[in-house]
Each structure stands twice: as C-alpha cells, then as structure tokens.
Design brief:
- By secondary structure, the protein is α/β, with parallel strands linked by helices.
- It is 39% helix and 10% strand.
- 36% of the residues are buried.
Length: 275
C-alpha cells in the first residue's frame, strides 16, 4: 500500500452518559485515555448519549440523523459498546429507563450487527459491562439532589447491574467477542487502601480514578486480545510520540519528528505527496 492510500483509523465509542463523559478533562475520562494511546494513529469518536438506554440508542440509530452520526465513517478499527447502567434500572422505581434483561441482550446483538453491517465484518467490537453500583453513594446523591423529596429507595442496585453485566458477558461469549467486565473487575481489584467504591463519583458514574481504571483496563484488553491493534510505548521513555513506539496495523500518520532528516527534510515527506 502506498503512503497516499493510508488514512487515519477510527475508534468509535457507543454508549450512555458513562461514554459521553469519557472525554471529561476534569475526570480524566477513559475515552481520553484511548485517544492518548492512539495519537496520530486513530481518531477516537465519542458517540455516548447521556440518559440513554439501549432501546433509545437503537431508535436513534434507525433515523437518518442517527445513521449519519453513528455509522457514516470509514476505516473504523474498533467499536466499543458500553450500555447497561440505565437499562438495569428497577422496573417499578424507574420504568422510564428500564429495559428487560432479554431485550437488553437482543439489543446488544443488534448493535454488534449494525457495527459489522456498516463498518465491515472485520471491525473489532468490544463490549463493556456496566460498573457496580454503590448504594450508600447513590442514596447520598439522591438526598443532595432532591432534598426533602428524596425517596430513600434505590432505583439502581449492585444486584441489578450485576445481572446485566453477566448477561452481557453471555452475549459476548455467544458472539465470540471480547468483553471488559467492569462490574466484576472493579470489585475484584478492591483493597483496604483502594475500595472499589472510590471508582464511582456518585455511586453510578465514574470518578477520575474510575476513568483511569477503565481506560487502563481497556488498553490492557486490546493489548492482550487484539495485539495487532496494540500500540507499544517507547521502551526507554514510555512516550508514544516518536519512532520508538510501534503498532502492527495502526500505522502512524506523517513521519515522526525523529525520522526527519533536518538537512534534507523534503526527503522524509516525498513519498507522502500525490503524483
């Protein structure tokens, strides 16, 4: 392939508010961790929709606007699918967001099918399971937000989010796709000095520490299960902005600064010009 045919790859993040907020500078968003790792190799596109469940996402995807926004992209290398935090709402206390478990599983399969249908059969799809729910933090958040109108009842629980996380791992196994089980991984990583509850800002959404946790876990998953898409930092500096970093199939765009001959810089760019 000639240099003129190489285009920057794309990584697309589908999800709810946990994805929409993944570019947060204040909270060190997990999407920003991915964008940082793929500097000059891939553009990371955030397609998170705050407050959405998987039903609403698919309704949007079926519209002309949704088709253009979600799927009108080429050279897509990775798609992450991160739903469940809203779908897992209690049916009685939050029917607005609740999606029955079996329909949630069906929706996850449909989103994967849409990704393949629009981006190609070779696109790499990664499911991400919802995080655990901290009951105490959710109740504090509820009281702070609603004051005297707070019900003191939990519309989202650790048990419910766990059911949807388990269901997603089953879908991933059936489709033979990787799944980052945040619900389980966060709790398993818990320690006396770093309890998993610290990964959540309000008992549901990710704190800065939680975003770092998810970002690093996702990069580790890609390194382990999709090594051809992994980016290896410089052995000496840990940086990813020079020729000492490498990737098998995520080619860099434009020569690295240390690849340019300062005495004849034109030579370094000659093969990038159209004939």
């Amino acid at each position: 392939m000639s240099s003129t045919n190489v285009k920057r790859g794309k990584i697309i993040l589908f999800g709810d508010s946990i994805t929409q907020m993944s570019f947060s500078a204040a909270d060190c968003g997990w999407g920003a961790w991915i964008a940082d790792r793929y500097q000059r190799r891939a553009d990371v596109l955030n397609r998170g929709f705050s407050g959405y469940n998987s039903d609403w996402f698919l309704k949007f995807a079926a519209t002309d606007e949704g088709q253009a926004d979600l799927f009108d992209h080429n050279n897509v290398k990775i798609v992450t699918v991160f739903f469940g935090a809203n779908d897992a709402s209690d049916l009685e206390l939050n029917p607005r967001h609740h999606v029955p478990l079996e329909r949630y599983k069906s929706n996850m399969k449909e989103i994967a099918s849409l990704a393949r249908g629009n981006f190609g059969e070779d696109v790499n799809i990664i499911f991400i399971a919802p995080p655990p729910v901290c009951h105490d933090a959710r109740l504090r958040f509820q009281k702070d937000k609603y004051k005297d109108k707070a019900t003191g009842k939990l519309e989202r629980t650790l048990e419910l989010s766990g059911q949807y996380a388990k269901a997603l791992t089953e879908v991933a196994k059936e489709l033979e796709l990787p799944c980052l089980d945040v619900w389980a991984k966060m709790q398993h990583s818990s320690s006396s000095t770093k309890p998993w509850q610290e990964y959540l800002s309000d008992g549901l959404h990710l704190s800065a520490a939680g975003n770092k946790f998810v970002g690093e876990a996702l990069i580790d998953l890609i390194d382990d299960l999709l090594p051809e898409l992994a980016v290896t930092p410089c052995t000496y500096t840990g940086n990813i902005n020079s020729s000492s970093r490498s990737s098998i199939s995520m080619r860099r765009i434009a020569p690295w600064h240390d690849e340019i001959d300062h005495s004849d810089p034109e030579k370094s760019f000659r093969n990038l010009s159209l004939e």
